[in-house]
Amino acid sequence: MSNVPVAVVTGANKGIGFAIVRALCKQFPGDVYLTARDPGRGQAAVSKLQEEGLRALFHQLDIDDLQSIRALRDFLKEKYGGLNVLVNNAGIAFKVHDTAPFAVQAEVTLKTNFFGTRNVCIELLPLVKPYGRVVNVSSMVSSSALGGCSQELQQKFRSDTITEDELVELMNKFVEDTKKSVHEKEGWPNTAYGVSKIGVTVLSRIQARMLNEKRKGDHILLNACCPGWVRTDMAGPKAPKTPDEGAETPVYLALLPSDADGPHGQFLSNKTVRTW
Ligand code: NAP
């Protein structure tokens, strides 16, 4: 088994994930795994970094596929005995003009952004070594979507005692409410992406709390962040930040020094803790 530190980035064949891997290759003292659901796109991305003189390793990971997640888990367990840095970056967003029914957009978006991210965490968080760093890439849209929720929902999502089961129930309820076209009446905002990212931010707060309760002495720091508005296939060419600039806050959180005792359980943008 290798003692080399290891970092894993999801959805890293392009966009912000690719830029996070690029930065980690330069700054992280260990093996950096660029993961992608499509091996062809993933290997091509690794080759691109190689041309820049950077060494990333590749492992397949489709966060929608439990088998794929577990294959990565087993690989990390066997080769490294765990992992040191996990960046949950993979995500999707329907384009504004997409004509797919809102209920379909809700189900598909939540499936990847919330449930897929959560499944990766269920399998990989127990493997995170002491002094490990976990970064869940959320969005400022999670904050604006929270503001668009009913007072009752806002209270639940801001609660310091909400459980993961309760959050899962709420995320499922949103999808079901969209199918019955009652989501607005039930207090939800009209954004599937926004609700999925509320899920990611609240999940991060819960996970940090669980780490405090169960692994206090392990000094693991886990946070959610927004990369900013970044020029990628998702956000389009008008966004002001380059992918490398978008990677800055996630990479800052992934590389928090071993003597840092925070941030932990926070939501950050531009390397600054934001009020949730
Ligand atoms: P992007 O260019 O569309 O890249 C998304 C990445 O996620 C791609 O590599 C994609 O792989 C991957 N992915 C999607 N579904 C996946 C799955 N099931 N399993 C594994 N990988 C999957 O988007 P981006 O702008 O870089 O976004 C990265 C993250 O930042 C997302 O979580 C996004 O919500 C968040 N974010 C972005 C912005 C922005 O302005 N760009 C702002 C706030 C937050 P394929 O190539 O195979 O599709």
Q: How would you describe what is shown here?
A:
- This protein is of the alpha/beta class and 276 residues long.
- The chain has one domain: NAD(P)-binding Rossmann-like Domain (Rossmann fold).
- Helices cover 47% and strands 15% of the residues.
- The protein has 10 helices and 8 strands.
- The protein has an 8-stranded mixed sheet, sandwiched between helices.
- It is globular, with a radius of gyration of 18 Å.
- The mean pLDDT is 98.
- Bound molecules: NADP nicotinamide-adenine-dinucleotide phosphate.
- This is carbonyl reductase (NADPH).
- Keywords: Cytoplasm, NADP, Oxidoreductase, Phosphoprotein.
Features:
alpha/beta; 10 helices; 276 residues; Rossmann fold; 15% strand; 8 strands; binds NADP nicotinamide-adenine-dinucleotide phosphate; 47% helix; 8-stranded mixed β-sheet; NADP; carbonyl reductase (NADPH) activity
How are the SSEs placed, and which strands pair?
Layout: E1 6-9, H1 15-27, E2 31-36, H2 39-51, E3 57-60, H3 66-80, E4 83-88, H4 102-124, E5 128-137, H5 140-147, H6 151-158, H7 164-179, H8 192-214, E6 221-226, H9 243-246, H10 248-254, E7 267-269, E8 272-274
Parallel strand pairs: 1-2, 1-4, 2-3, 4-5, 5-6, 6-7
Antiparallel strand pairs: 7-8
Helix pairs in contact: 3-4, 4-7, 4-8, 5-8, 7-8
Bound molecules: NADP nicotinamide-adenine-dinucleotide phosphate (NAP).
In brief:
This protein is of the alpha/beta class. The protein has 10 helices and 8 strands. This is carbonyl reductase (NADPH).
Derived structural class: alpha/beta
Full CATH superfamily name = NAD(P)-binding Rossmann-like Domain
The first-to-last residue Cα distance is 41 Å
Q: Fraction of residues in helices? A: 40-55%
What value does the average pLDDT take?
98
Number of strands: 8
Spatially, the strands of the biggest sheet line up as 3-2-1-4-5-6-7-8
> How would a textbook summarize the main sheet?
8 strands, mixed
Unreliable stretches covering 5 or more consecutive residues: none
Total number of helices: 10
Molecules bound to protein: NADP nicotinamide-adenine-dinucleotide phosphate
Overall structural domain count: 1
Please give the CATH architecture: 3-Layer(aba) Sandwich
The first-level CATH class name:
Alpha Beta
Order of helices and strands: EHEHEHEHEHHHHEHHEE
The CATH topology, please?
Rossmann fold
| Quaternary organization | single chain
Task: Please tell me how large the radius of gyration is.
Answer: 18 Å
Shape: globular
Strand content of the residues, in percent? 15-25%
Family: Belongs to the short-chain dehydrogenases/reductases (SDR) family.
Subcellular location: Cytoplasm
InterPro entries: CBR1-like (IPR045313), NAD(P)-bd_dom_sf (IPR036291), Sc_DH/Rdtase_CS (IPR020904), SDR_fam (IPR002347)
GO molecular function, one term: carbonyl reductase (NADPH) activity
